[in-house]
Design brief:
By secondary structure, the chain is α/β, with parallel strands linked by helices. Helix content is 34%, strand content 32%. It binds zinc ion (ZN). Zinc ion is lined by residues 111, 123-124, 159, 187-188, 240.
């Protein structure tokens, strides 16, 4: 009897202990974003400003790059300079890596260069501070968190000369078939004039990347007391380093202050104009989004949507050109198969293209296109399958009549 009671008590304690441990683990996002504070953000921004204008390929920009490299290295990350050459400029991006279970990566990034004459406190000391603060906060928990995806902390130069560093990075990634799940770009996140400005942040995205904004909106609600921001969505344009990633078919969003900085690109873009409380809250939002992305701690049981945009069912194609609607899909010569695939919760991981059940291509970045040019006559089946990042899948298929000899 006594023994049984002891065992029961032991069980009870064990149970309680495990409950505490798991409860603690689920709160690590709160713990991490709580280590990000105004003092930390202001230190980074003042330090960056004190290098002077960080004009790409000049000594002050290179010194700022060296400082960023050393900070990231000292946090215990595998850190490297990535030299680039573009449009007559040559400089370096800096990348620190926190490996996850998979090589696919989630990127947090910002440009650290500035325009001539500007100390670049907001543009873009604020975004660079967010990358450093993310790295610092996560470094203190990195042995405790289990990451699905690899996190890459990246700072670019050459942004002010035409997104040069980020174009170089994204084109390399594309050429090497690197799998990038999501990109979070921070540029000018430290300025707010009014109460409205202090309570809002803009996120720029596109159709394929909207799922990332959806996660940010959820995260902003989940950690409201630490973030206190409403998200305002806008359509992405070519105005910062998220753009090259979008251009190469990756999913990327851009975080940006709600009220545009009055001192933009002037000598008055200085740290004393920064609202550090605001910059801290925007940084926490980005970091919480980053961790949720890296773990995809999202319940997604919804399959993606997928459709074949080309060939269109019921049309005649000759030499890859749409001719006329004929009721049946008839293809003479080669054809490009174009697929539209979107997932609202976790984004598209990959699209597979099959002809008669044989896998012809696996595509990791959009536009999802495959040129089908092989001997084929009479009836064949085109099937496309899209997978989201939670491995839910959906497909679309139809038969085509082909003459390609
Ligand atoms: Zn900028």
């Amino acid at each position: 009897m006594k023994k049984v009671v002891c065992v029961l008590i032991a069980c009870l304690f064990t149970q309680v202990y495990f409950l505490n441990v798991s409860a603690h683990n689920t709160n690590y996002v709160e713990d991490i974003i709580n280590t990000i504070n105004e003092e930390m953000i202001s230190n980074y921004i003042y330090t960056l400003q004190n290098f002077g204008p960080r004009i790409t390929a000049t000594p002050s920009c290179q010194q700022a790059g060296q400082y960023i490299y050393e900070e990231l290295y000292e946090m215990g990350y595998e850190t490297r300079f990535l030299p680039w050459e573009n449009s007559g400029y040559s400089d370096r991006n800096i990348e620190a890596i926190l490996p996850g279970e998979r090589n696919d990566s989630v990127i947090i990034c910002a440009h650290y260069d500035s325009v001539p004459t500007s100390p670049g406190a907001d543009d873009n000391g604020s975004g660079t501070a967010a990358v450093l603060a993310a790295a610092k906060a996560i470094s203190e928990y990195k042995d405790r968190i289990q990451l699905t995806y690899t996190i890459r902390f990246i700072t670019f130069s050459g942004e002010e000369e035409g997104l040069l560093g980020s174009y170089s990075y994204a084109s390399n990634a594309h050429n090497n078939n690197a799998q990038i799940v999501a990109v979070l770009n921070a540029d000018m996140i430290g300025y707010a004039r009014s109460d409205m400005g202090k309570n809002r942040v803009k996120i720029y995205d596109d159709e394929n990347s909207a799922w990332i904004t959806n996660i940010s909106i959820d995260v902003a609600k989940m950690y409201e007391e630490y973030i206190g921001l409403n998200i305002v969505r806008r359509d992405a344009g070519a105005n910062s380093d998220h753009w090259p990633f979008l251009a190469y078919g990756y999913d990327a969003v851009f975080f940006h202050e709600y009220e545009f900085n009055d001192y933009y690109h002037t000598s008055n873009d200085t740290a004393d104009k920064i609202d550090f409380n605001y910059a801290t809250r925007v940084t926490r939002l980005i970091v919480a989004t980053l961790i949720h992305l890296a773990n995809l701690e999202i319940t997604d049981t919804e399959p993606p949507s997928v459709r074949i945009d080309k060939p269109k069912e019921g049309y005649l194609y000759i030499a890859d050109r749409e001719i006329i609607r004929v009721g049946k899909t008839i293809i003479i010569g080669k054809t490009t198969i174009e697929v539209n695939a979107v997932d609202d919760k976790t984004g598209i991981n990959r699209v597979e293209i099959y002809i008669d059940g044989h896998l012809k291509a696996t595509l990791f970045s959009h536009p999802y296109k495959f040129i089908w040019d092989e001997f084929a006559i009479f009836t064949h089946k085109i099937k496309v399958v899209a997978y989201d990042n939670a491995e839910n899948s959906n497909y679309n298929e139809f038969n085509v009549i082909v003459f390609n000899a």
